[in-house]
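ASSEMBLY PREDICTION REQUEST
Request ID: AP-0331
Submitted by: J.K., bench scientist
Number of chains: two
Total residues: 977
Priority: normal
Notes: Please return the full assembly, not individual chains.
Input sequences:
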Amino acid sequence: MLLNQNRELNLKERFLHLSFIFIAFICLLAIIGCMTLYSVAGGKMQPWALNQAIRFGLGILILLIAALIRPEFYYKIATPFYLFTLALLIIVDIAGHIGMGAQRWIHLGFFNLQPSELMKIAIVLELAKYFSNIPIESIRSIKGIIIPVILVAVPVALIILQPDLGTSLMILFCAAALFYLAGVQWWKFALGIGAVTAAAPVLWHFLHDYQKNRILTFLDPERDPLNTGYHIIQAKIALGSGGLWGKGFLSGTQSHLNFLPEPHTDFIFTTYSEEFGMIGGSIVILLNLLIITYGYWFAFRIHNNNYFGKMVILGLNTNYFLYVFINIAMVTGLLPVVGIPLPLISYGGTVILSVMASFGIMLSFYVNRDRELKK
Amino acid sequence: MKKSNHKLRLLLQRSLIIFSLNILLLFTLIGRLYYIQIYQGEKYALLSDSNRISMQLIAPPRGTINDRNGIELAVNNQNFQAMLITEQCRNIDRLLKIITPILNLSEDDIIRIKKDITHHRRYVPVKIKDNLSWDEVATLMINNNNTHGLIIDEGLIRFYPYEKYTAHPLGYVGAVSEADLQKSDAPLLQVPGFKIGKSGFEKTYDEKLRGHEGILTYEVNAYGRIMREIDKKEGAKGEDLNLTIDIRLQQAAYNAFGEESGAAVVLNVHTGEILALVSVPSFDSNLFVDGISVKNWNDLLNDEKTPMTNKAISGQYSPGSTFKIVVALAALEAGIITPKTTSYCSGRMKLGNHYFHCWRHSGHGHLNVVSAIKNSCDIFFYETALKLGIDKISEMSHRLGLGETYDIGLDNQKQGVIPNQKWKQEKLKKPWQKGETVIAGIGQGYVLVTPLQLATMLARVVNGGYAINPTFIKQQNPPEPKKLNIKPENLEIVKKGMFEVVNGIGGTATRAKLKIKGVQMGGKTGTTQVRRISLKERAKGIIRDEDLPWKYRNHAWFMAYAPHDNPKYAVAVIAEHGRSGSGVAAPIASKILEEAINLNIE
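STATUS: Completed
Returned structure:
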């Protein structure tokens, strides 16, 4: 019986073990995203909605492939993938340094690869692998966390240099969650936060002017109403004027009349909520909560001996949560505008593909939930 | 195994904590949505509307001004403007090169257009040229393949089809000035390009003609570009103004002057309706609508014939011999003379140690009042005035309407001067002299009247003594004019005198008889000295008036009425520096009366 449970599944069995409800929720959000893009374009499929649908189709494909791959694969590639992504980050930084200013992408002809996006997955895999292989005593010792701190600090520093404040913070938060899950004591976090706070004035000095502006504007939106603060004020007007039920599909005036900044990317949630009101906005938040809840369910459900898998699922899930929370919090004025998109809804290829790949990896562990990981 | 369990338990415990935190944070977001969308929703809904909704006033069409037969004297013409929308234009230089020959654009125009383009947002239309002709519009339409971004905008512009003929009473409209804005806070005045009345009836009746603004509500985007119309409240066209003028008579009166400078007023003697009021020369009021050029303005200002002055109401002239009618009536009414009273004219009269001359140096012999009017004898009226005294003359002048202004809706109406003893004491601080009564008796000295006043005086005399008031506005039920309490037989006597002037043998204006069978007119000439010929000039051989420069020559008056049997029209004509009432002013007056009778204006 035990042996039987540990049996490897064939491809068809693995497919049937997928959580189709989970995938359905994802599709529902993507449909809402395409509808909103259709509306922003003034009731047209071009230039965004159709592209987004195609990318999402590609994303589904990636999700399925990632889900049907055996979980052992992810354990095996964790370290090489991490190093590879780190190398890409260094290349991007050097290219940017040499003369093209801010640089976040590697142009691959048909596709712009954003290494910082890959790093969000790579760091989770690498930390999960590290923590799964050391005993709890090591984790709870100072010596045991020196390596993982370096594993996090190096890519975060490279991404800050790009400069991409939002992504580096996301990786930092995600890593912190993994440290916490692995059993690192509270007081070490307090120490870390203390250290960062002490270093803040020094870090402030290294920030770009536009980054300083964003943080200052967040602290006082009326400071510069026609420039950075204008975005937050107009976003609030869009949301607020939506009311309970919204202005109706295709009837959002703030976005259609260009008062909203980037109504199809980072600020798409305001566009959507202007048209569908608090009801529509809450539905999107609750759908995301359902997806996240499923993620936690996956982590609980898989085999207890698969510590690596649980860690990966929780890490990627936290990553997704951070996307959703930071984006909505920033467009509703709870957090500074740091340039984090709303996955599945915002227009943009890289995020959709990386999020779908994450979901695929989570599913891969879930599909093989009844057996141990063969290291 | 135990250690591994501890590690796993920690993971699961802590993942529950993080999960709870996730739920908490996501519900915080929903709370945030509630705060912004429901709690503060109304505030943001208002902000959203003020963001996107803009309003614009639409100027209503101005009321037209019509003559008594409904012929339009001031209209709103379609005005075609060539405008350029920069963002739709592919190559501005090429476009300007194409349209420059079509629209005759000057270097200055091109510079202004290029400046406007750089000063406005790319979707704001820039004016290229106003008042396009049909030919220009048609040529631009044909070329529209090469002229992307060029649009032809249709608007309304005030137009005065009778130009100089109506310029004086009608006035003109012009752009709203700073001063206008300070006087009135009417929102229409803020509309770009809005025109208001600047003179004449256009000014007096401006609010009536103006109408009520329409309001266009539209949605704008973040850059101020108009996206769509939300609501359009149509304005109300201004009220039309119907005048008593007959444009045909107005034109005839103007043309009757030929090269002369002067003014004429034609009244219906029973109603006081002004049938024509001209001041010659005039100007083209259309020049002012879009702002007059400096050159045109200077030409008008420097013309010695003062085209900008409405001489019919602002020109004050000595009435000369036309005033004898007033003196005769005053004397008859006072009982100082009767129709049978005669005087002897020897050509001069001595008062103290000063001689007053008759215009006819050889004298007229014995005359009664009728023949004194017919011959315009000065001696008769010197003597009559002396007997009468200046105050009686003054009183009759005011009764007949001299020295008064009228509610005709035009600015710059002058009062003239009707002197009496009190007036001189107050104005000049000197007592009245008898000699001044003598010359006042022939309408010289201090006495000044306007053509409008003289026409009114004549109308009151020939209509049977009714105090009609001149008016430009047709009234449905005009009030019955007051009686002046002048004996009808006395009015008949002066009328007979005026009849003799034109129709009697040896009358002063017999050449001016009407060329219409069965219709006779009466009238009175007047010639008034502008300046005495000085001794120096006499020494140079200048003895006659026509030898003097134009501006020093005598003014010529003629006032007339017709038909004599049942008077209907009264006209007063002044030919400035026209030298002779009978030779210059009388023919003009008879031409005008002939036209009035032919038109049979009701």
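REVIEWER COMMENTS: Chain A has a mean pLDDT of 86.
SIGN-OFF: pending second reviewer
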